[in-house]
Fold this protein.
Amino acid sequence: MFGHLDDPLGASPGARELARVLRRAHVIRARRRVAAVAACVVVIVGFAGYLAGRPQTVHISSTETGYQFNELKGPLAVGTPVPTTALVNVVFDNAERGFALAAHRDQAVLAETTDGGSSWQVQNGDLPSGYGQSTGYAGQFEFVGSDGYLWGGAPESDGSVPLWVTSDGGISWRSAAIGPVVYDVSAIGSNVWALAGACNVEPVGGAPAAPCPVVLEQSLDGGASWSAVDEAGFTEVVNALPLAQRVELARITLSRSYVLTTSAPDQSGTTELLFTGDSGATWQTRPVPCGGAFDLGAEIAASGTDDLWLLCGSQASAGQQSKQLYRSEDGGTTWTLTASATGLGTPPPAASQPNTLTLGGYIAPYSIGHKNLAVASPTTAWLYPFRSDLFKTVNGGLAWSAVPGLDTAGFGSGGPGNVTFISAQQGWICEYGVGLWHTSDGVHWYPLGV
């Protein structure tokens, strides 16, 4: 979420356009009376001045903007403006350049910004199939410079879920020769890790799926070539749909990483946490405290090798879900229950552990990891459950409060979205149908693209 831890401009006519206007005015001047010519020039210059100088706070409603964007027939040309209300998932390579998966007619398009998110343009209107609301798979992606990685789409006809790689900022994509199923990807510069399943996804209603080895694949050239770190696989998971949140990679440095695996709910919700400190050569198992009604799904985040935050999710209903947050200061060797939200199909908390999390919104297994929890330090983090508000803690997760202003803007209304940070101060939050907001100090949030 924070990379890796230990180590709007308005329309303005240019000189060419203004010259054309003046030449046209000269022709009119030769044919019309002087008074009519003067009036025409005043109108033209006045309109040009309005376009050049109009304020950037002109508001277009989310509904109207989304409707107009979806009225455009695809595939969309490169450079087509994309409204912030169409953004579903955003990532930023730096404070100015970012990429987004945007919804267009139930399909996904790749958009790019070079001004910190104030304006967006189509970078690729014809992404590989399997992404978008029509398939139910929003997908995940990551960019480092012009190198990008896209995965998590709908399974293809043969049960594969490939990783797509780009080296030109998303203009063209190619399938990586790994898999057949890719769960999660993390890049530190040109050093890329991908967690892949060695067997295809089993369809819903098919025969019970057998455990499948999880293989760590590595690329040292930005995704151009790949090699397996361990051919035999370092753990196993059941490749059953839904595939989201089956395996999550929390990479800390080039050598240190955590992998969280969760079996399908019909497999008793077994969760396993593994750690490597030697680039995947060996793995150590860490205990996972999620249990009882809270073993349905889990998400992990970190501010460093030792500081881990673990969310445990239970069954959800009507936009609410009981949740638990555990903290570890020793890399997952021991855990402390720090906050909870109980009562929805779960017993109330003990008197010594009041509910400080929100029941509203979904985390695992109903939302993909990396999108809900952003950890800046052992004290500061943000929680953005699907279909809920954005919450912040400044005391290590003991207490959480909703970020002012975002709820009144419409966040939490139910559209897909994510929160992402490139530092403890620079962050963005988007929600489909609502828009994109930004913070540059980690406290105050402002709308972009309105």
